[in-house]
Fold:
Amino acid sequence: MTEPRPSWHSNVGFLLAAVGSAVGLGNLWRFAYLASESGGAAFVLVYLVVIVLVGAPLLVAELAMGRSAREGAFRAPGRLVGRRLEWVGALFVLTGFAILSYYSVITGWTARYLVAVARGAVERDTAAQFAAAASGGAAVTWHLVAMALTVAIVAGGVRGGIERASLVLMPALFVLLIALAAWAATLPDGGAGYAFYLRPDPARIWRLDTFTSAVGQAFFSLSLGMGAMLTYASYLQKGGSLVREGFVIALADGSVAFAGGLVTFPIVYQFGLQGQVGESTVGALFIALPHAFATLGATGRIVGTAFFLALLIAALTSAISLLEVLVDAVVARTGWSRRRAVVLAGGATALAGVPAALDLRWLGAADRIAGNLLLVVGGLIIAILTGWIWTGADAELADGFPHPRVRRAWIWLLRVAIPAALALVLVGAVRDALGVIAAAIR
Ligand code: PFF
Structure:
């Protein structure tokens, strides 16, 4: 007998879980290096605009699809539009699988650093320490630890696992981040960090590459374009405004990314580490910050522990949403019990993550292809689907918009502006992915 479809216990539970999915490694690890690569404050400004004009409207569309279909990422497109779109569900699930496989590796690094920093075991040469931790046997082990934690939460179910964990972990994360930002504000030489982060260079604002990386980052950070938010919304009861929900999630995510920058940039500049952040993209956070923490002695140990604990919470609450997409798909496809599906999906992802744990280039390539290109493709599909093909969005969102004009603006954003912008971004993302593949083959 199949189990009944799960549902959230409360709306707050859903919101915290969705914010938990959005707020993750993307907000701290990816955001920090993209912002420093792409002009600091100019990037931050463009990013915030992209969140409001591209991210939030698409997020609302995904939520509407999920709640209306009452099916997760795998089944929803087919259910809403018909069999000819079943491949979209498969694409979503494949993207989630690929992202989780390397996301869990970075979550593993985070867990390992949490332990090392808490024990005061940061080495003098943090770049060498990172190189040893990032790939190889230890990285595989910690990746498996991260997957085991993720599986343990998701196995508890939507209410008893995901919702319960989010209700405890998300408030803890907010408190930790506020405390860290307050501490960073006391650094005497952090001013240059704030200036880089907060004073935009007008010339960088209008550059196409600033826009392109902002869009890619918005997708990753909002968990958009692969049906994670859709799947969470499929566990909602009718009623409640998805428009408001979508904007709350997007703003919460943007705020955490912004607050994360208020923590990382002053630290990086205080210790003159800006070169390190730009140089080793994936390693930025794991090389520069431990260096600062090690210099600070006992204070560094406390602050560093708080930082990596916050990062681990952020990573885990995102990883569980990725795994949930897979679990829901396995249940939908096989009719298995949830527990069995969790073991299968978790085990398969654990295996698939091994190459990323053994080779940083693989990890980087997977992030470019699944974490960037495929999410943008998914977003484009969602925009076109909700704007032109699936006719149920209006009914699902009825009364949700504060004004009919906002509703019209939303529809036309999805129909024209967002697809046009994404097509532009896609050209760059395809070129980028091909470059990564060519470099790997060579
Ligand atoms: N939003 C997460 C982050 O910013 O780290 C990453 C992520 C989670 C991407 C879930 C996609 C997803 F479906």
Summary: The chain has one domain: 11-441. The chain is about 80% helix and 0% strand. The radius of gyration is 21 Å.
